[in-house]
Amino acid sequence: MTTLTPPNAPTARFTVADFNRMGGPAGFSYRLPKLGTPRADHDALCIAEGRVEEHQIRPGVTLVVSDLQVHHHYEATSFMTPRFSAIIMLQGQARAQLDRQNDVPLVAHSGISALYGDSACMTGIHPAGQRLRSVNLSLSEPEAAGDERASEMIWKALRSPAGLRLRRWQVQNHLLLAIEHLLDCGWDHPLRNLLREGVGAQLLAHALASLDQAPPADQSLSQRDRQLLERVRERLHDAPGEDHTLEALAKLACMSPSTLRAKFQAAYRQSVFSWLRERRLEVARQHLAQGWSVQQAAHFVGYRHATNFATAFRERYGVAPSELN
Questions:
Q1: Does residue 27 sit in helix, strand or coil?
Q2: 107 domain-assigned
Q3: Cα 136 to Cα 53: distance, rounded to the nearest angstrom
Q4: 272 DSSP β-pair partners
Q5: What is Dmax (Cα atoms) for the chain?
Q6: DSSP state of 2
Q7: Could you tell me the pLDDT band of residue 66, with boundaries at 50, 70 and 90?
Q8: Minimal CA–CA distance to 104: which of 128, 125, 130?
Q9: Please, are residues 260 and 232 in contact by the beta-carbon 8 Å criterion?
């Protein structure tokens, strides 16, 4: 096990050189494509601050837990033999590409399964100015799954066309809660290790299950559709407290309300207002953790009545918002 930033440790600063040192064994190299300065100057530049933990669950299976404030747009590209990765985003957004073609958005509370290696490189694209909280479970080879049938599922997927080797899937609420507990848990090392193993096993099972699912519905969306839908999603992300209407959002997307409803569901696997509800509760949870009152947090994210907010919050997180004060 390698712990790059121990839990509860002071915030660490990460440069491109740090990321390359950490990502090298896993077969990833990092770069700053949007920075105009000479590449030689990039290695010492702080691109993110926060916490990164890497744990070997068992031989060939690695779990990486990240909680970072990203200062500069960066990209990570694979360059090694076939691997299988399952990534869940708890907060923030990124994009994943295979061979610079398939472009799959990864937003809060969504997951992807990715199979890549010598015949297809994967690139992760991480915009600046956001907090990224995620977990990444990777297998160095299909046999590391520890089960003959599971390994065969991965080998079969590795032989499929590139368009089917990067899949987005909806993360069930119980798995999100387990990951949140892992991130926030203050248990000592033996108990944390057991918790990591359990969360890692759940994550692997859900990611393998996604390989048997039909191709994601958003495969049929055009690049223009995705760009327009992302404009709507960014609007909801940046202004969760506004009184959004489907008509206004459809106008922003240059679509009819019914078309926006259908295409948003296809792209993000949930309705427009389900996504907004998740975002509002996520923002409220952050402010409650900073000491805001329940009423302040509720009104900030657009709830007119604190009782309605408290009910939604308890349904989402399993605790009353007042318990976070």
A1: coil
A2: yes
A3: 10
A4: none
A5: 55
A6: B
A7: very high
A8: 125
A9: yes
Q: What is the CA radius of gyration of the chain?
A: 20
> Is position 2 within any domain?
no
Residue partners of 274: CB distance under 8 A and separation at least 6: none
Give the burial class of 315: count Cβ atoms within 10 A of its Cβ; 0-12 exposed, 13-18 middle, 19 or more buried: exposed
| pLDDT band at residue 10 using 50, 70 and 90 as cut-offs | low
Structure tokens that stand for 193 in this block: 């290790």
Distance between CA atoms of residues 55 and 183, nearest Å: 13
Same domain flag for 261 and 295: yes
pTM here is: 0.64
In sequence order, the β-bridge partners of residue 55 are: 63
Own/partner contacts of 2-8, CB < 8 Å, gap of 24 or more, are 2/54, 2/55, 2/56, 3/53, 3/54, 3/55, 4/52, 4/53, 4/54, 5/50, 5/51, 5/52, 5/53, 6/53, 7/51, 7/53, 7/185, 7/186, 7/192, 8/186
Which parts of the chain are beta strand (E)?
A: 12-15, 28-31, 46-58, 61-70, 74-78, 83-91, 93-98, 102-107, 110-116, 122-126, 130-139, 166-170
Pair (206, 261) in one structural domain: no
Please name the helix (run of DSSP H) or strand (run of DSSP E) that holds residue 259, with its range, or none. helix 257-268
pLDDT at position 259 is: 93
CATH of the domain at 84: 2.60.120.10
Domain, as residue range, for 254: 219-324
Count how many domains the chain has. 2
DSSP string computed for 142-211: GGGGSSHHHHHHHHHHHTS-GGGSEEEEEPPHHHHHHHHHHHH----HHHHHHHHHHHHHHHHHHHHHHH
- Shared-domain flag, residues 75 and 210: yes
